[in-house]
Amino acid sequence: MYELMTKSRKGQLGGATQIAVGLVTLVLIVAVGAIVLGDFQDTQTADSAPHNITGDGLTGLTNMSAQFGTVGTVAIAAVLIALVVGAFVLRR
Description:
Low-confidence stretches: none
Shape: rod-shaped
Oligomer: single chain
Strand content: under 5%
Number of helices: 4
Largest sheet: none
Order of helices and strands: HHHH
């Protein structure tokens, strides 16, 4: 493992960029999905099956978007842990 870590010294923060872009992309996709579902639900008859299904979809998107802060915190923690571990492994 030491040989692998010493050979790949280029940009230890490169993973942080990929995580950030992925998280932003996920947030944008969920936001667009919520807009589409909200507009679609407005065109349906209240208390009909399609209206209730799109309402459940919006509730699911809301619950998922509530977790984005936690996902971001875990992603940042993973990058920091990788940096700390990398610093001690490469110190030899």
